[in-house]
Design a protein that fits this description.
The complex is a heterodimer of chains A (330) and B (126).
Chain A: H1 2-20, E1 30-36, E2 39-45, H2 52-70, H3 78-85, E3 91-92, H4 95-110, H5 120-126, H6 138-146, E4 153-156, E5 161-164, H7 177-191, E6 197-201, E7 204-208, E8 212-218, E9 221-231, E10 235-240, E11 245-248, E12 251-254, E13 269-276, H8 279-292, H9 294-301, E14 308-313, E15 318-320, E16 326-328
Antiparallel strand pairs in A: 1-2, 2-6, 3-5, 4-5, 6-7, 7-10, 8-9, 9-16, 10-13, 11-12, 13-14, 14-15
Chain B: H1 6-30, E1 37-43, E2 46-52, E3 60-64, E4 68-72, E5 76-81, H2 87-90, E6 101-103, E7 108-114, H3 115-119, E8 123-125
Antiparallel strand pairs in B: 1-2, 1-7, 3-4, 4-5, 6-7
Classes of the chains: A alpha+beta (330), B alpha+beta (126).
């Protein structure tokens, strides 16, 4: 009898071994990656209702629709047409483009131009992120500055028209369109029943679901991270000087411009992250904070206490709001 | 003299049970899978290499001070050592975090960690 019990114990132990060794693969996820708005955009969801695949299709269709409206580089987009034709005459635009322009101008005013959708001529001149990147001559920068600034953009709400006051004015929605697209993709996914997903728009992250750990890239070694935030149903948008840049004669030129100088912003901040429910506002404010510098950004953020932020200066000092759950990595 | 006494049988069963549990434990430990294994190579206590074993750029060797030759594939192991005992070579290849490879004479340690669990990140904002 005792032998039988021992045998049984042995058998159970060995059987347990088999169970333990069953492959513990991670739960299946549904992924889709595509290129839009100048970057790779990935949606990853472990939440796979029957409709999730079509939800992803709908979300990406929405994204491509926004690109056809808001891309400054796509010759077939509505914004491209406006940039080419809005000097001195009223151009009627779609509700969606009008809304983006209106919101962009609102935040340009609110941030005293730290965020400005009307710096397209400066962006084009420097060509950072393209093979034509160069340091322009001083007179070129002066000329581009004259053709910049949200004050040169006239919007008429009743007729939904846009008009430029300067011939060389160019609108660039790069610092707002991705956030807007993220909001829209999230809305489509949630309406389709997705409750758990990560949207990665070229490093701008939107979380659907709870308690997701998001790393913040180290601005001086972007292959590593320097902080982790834990968020639920929020966006984490970062603006840094390390994504699109070139170095010449020991000077670091990057793609976030200061509309008052026509040069890459040199506020002392090298990475600005904003964490908020609305990806579009996060996108806008991360750029604005980068240009403002620590003191102005912290002062501005105090007026919007629901905004979370992480600012990193060029000596790798961290400044962050108290309303975020953050872990700094040494 | 009677060998099959009740005491001897109980004693034998206990020994057999302990032996079986040891074998099973060893087997379990050897087969613990790490989701995203990362190999860390330490020389004189300092981390010199950190390589993801899930990378598609594997199957290469690292020659460490002409003392140890380390092969890094989807498993990692020391394939040559100039030390006298060759314990590191005899440890074989590892892909789990239970048994590190250690070469005491050359002050070399190779261990596997869970790269993902180390940080447990869902995404990186940049």
């Amino acid at each position: 009898m005792k032998f039988k019990i021992l045998s049984l114990l042995l058998a159970l132990t060995l059987n347990g071994c088999g169970i333990f060794n069953e492959s513990s693969e991670s739960p299946p996820t549904l992924n889709r990656t595509d290129y839009a708005l100048g970057t790779y955009i990935t949606v990853k969801t472990p939440d796979i209702p029957v409709t999730a695949a079509s939800a992803l299709d709908k979300a990406f269709a929405r994204l491509f629709g926004i690109e056809m409206i808001a891309s400054a580089k796509n010759p077939e987009s509505e914004l491209f047409y406006v940039n080419e034709n809005a000097y001195g005459r009223d151009i009627i635009v779609s509700d969606e483009l009008y809304s983006l322009l209106h919101t962009g101008r609102f935040y340009a005013q609110l941030t005293d131009g730290a965020f400005d959708i009307a710096l397209g001529s400066i962006v084009e001149l420097w060509g950072i992120g393209t093979e034509n990147a160069r340091v322009p001559e001083a007179y070129e920068i002066t000329e581009a500055l004259g053709n910049s600034g949200f004050e040169q953009l006239v919007l008429s709400e009743g007729e939904r028209t846009v008009r430029f006051l300067r011939e060389g004015l160019r609108i660039d929605l790069g610092a707002i369109a991705k956030g807007y697209a993220a909001n829209e993709m999230k809305r489509v996914l949630v309406e389709s029943g997705v409750t758990d997903a990560i949207l990665d728009l070229g490093g701008d992250i939107v979380v659907i679901g709870s308690d997701r750990r998001i790393g913040i890239a180290d601005p001086r070694n972007s292959a590593e991270i320097c902080a982790i935030v834990t968020i639920s149903d929020k966006a984490v948008m970062t603006s840094g000087d390390y994504e699109r840049f070139f170095d010449e004669n020991g000077v670091h030129y990057h793609h976030i411009f200061d509309g008052t100088t026509g040069f890459s912003a040199d506020s002392g901040i090298i990475s600005a992250t904003v964490i908020f429910e609305c990806a579009m506002i996060s996108d806008v404010l991360s750029t604005a904070f980068f240009v403002m510098g620590v003191e102005r950004a912290v002062e501005f953020a105090a007026t919007m206490p629901e905004i979370g932020y992480i600012l990193i200066d060029n000596e790798m000092n961290f400044y962050y709001s108290e309303n975020i759950e953050i872990e700094i990595i040494n | 003299m009677k060998l099959l006494t009740k005491q001897n049988i109980v004693f034998f069963c206990i020994i057999a049970f302990v032996f079986a549990v040891s074998v099973v434990s060893w087997f379990i430990i050897r087969n613990i899978k790490i989701e995203n294994p990362v190999v860390e190579i330490y020389k004189n206590g300092e981390l010199t290499h950190k390589i993801e074993l899930t990378s598609d750029k594997l199957d290469f060797t690292i020659i460490d001070d002409n003392s140890n030759v380390i092969f890094v594939g989807h498993k990692v192991g020391v394939i040559h050592a100039d030390c006298p005992d060759k314990i590191c070579v005899n440890t074989g290849f590892i892909d789990s975090g239970v048994f590190p490879i250690i070469c005491l004479p050359n002050r070399l340690e190779i261990r596997i960690t869970d790269g993902e669990n180390e940080l447990r990140l869902d995404a990186v904002a940049r």
